[in-house]
Amino acid sequence: MRATILIFAILISTFAKAQTSTVLDTIYANDTKNVALFFPEPIRQGITGSDNFVFTYNREKEQYFGLLQAKPGKESNLLVVNRNGSIFSYIVRYKKQLSKLNYFIPASKSIGNEKPIVTDSILAESSEERIDNRTFYYQKFCSYLLNRKQRTGRIKKRNEGIVLSVENIVFDKEELYFVIQIVNHSTLDYDLNFLNLSIETQQKGKRKSLQRLYQEPIYKYNLPSKIVEGQTVRFVYVLHKFSLSNDRRAILELNEKDGERNIEMKLSHRYINNPN
């Protein structure tokens, strides 16, 4: 599941209260033709409010246009966020006969921006201190994943009361999100030294060997430094998307600081290549 209504609700809630009442334009569509919408910036996300309207766009590589189709039913709305954070909102209706198939939407039609634009020179100088737009998205999406019930299967390993499990692997845009859980069933606190993810490749030939390549997360959400006795912690690692061939696998390595309750978990290429 690549885009969700909940994520859009989270993103839009940051500025919705500040928006003034606006009369939205109406776009008509049907189920026999594609209605093309061209935006001033590449589309990052787009969603309709009803199942009888479908808005498709390239989720792998951001492009400037999306296609709208509709089935007979009640009117709904279309919400689109461009790469620069500009937001566009329209009423969408089904119409059997269409008089317009292409909409070239100017930047002036934006109803706002998910991130307020700083115009004051003093605030602009301190803009580096603010969380950038991408990091903000990672935060909200990771938070959403921790509240989901979806699981990728039972990928679990334990050592002396410490249980490491991968609850979910989710693909979104250009990233893989690993939802990880650690449970401390022991009577001692667990001080986390590191949790690394690497790709392991078996070298072919007479002298077979294993080579590991560490994968640096681009974002870590809620990663703890300590798991106290009886505690369960859940967090998310965000990595650039990757896939594995049959002779490669991912290795998740949990290491205890000043201790020996270490865990090494092997993740098959099947899990990495088939995320949720």
Properties at a glance:
elongated; five-stranded mixed β-sheet; 276 residues; mainly beta; five-stranded antiparallel β-sheet; 12% helix
Question: Could you characterize the architecture of this molecule?
Answer:
This protein is mainly beta. It has 4 helices and 19 strands. It has helices at residues 5-13, 121-125, 133-146, 269-273, and strands at residues 26-29, 35-38, 43-48, 53-56, 65-70, 76-82, 86-94, 102-104, 112-113, 155-159, 162-172, 175-184, 190-203, 209-215, 219-221, 226-227, 232-240, 248-256, 263-267. Helix 1 (5-13) crosses helix 3. The protein is elongated and about 70 Å long.
Quote the distance from N terminus to C terminus.
Answer: 6 Å
| Percentage of residues in strands | 35-45%
Report the major sheet. Answer: 5 strands, mixed
**What is Rg?**
23 Å
SSE sequence, one letter per element: HEEEEEEEEEHHEEEEEEEEEEH
Q: Quick check: average pLDDT? A: 83
What is the general shape? elongated
Number of strands: 19
SS class: mainly beta
Unreliable runs = 1-6, 12-20
Helix content: 10-25%
Total count of helical runs of at least 4 residues = 4
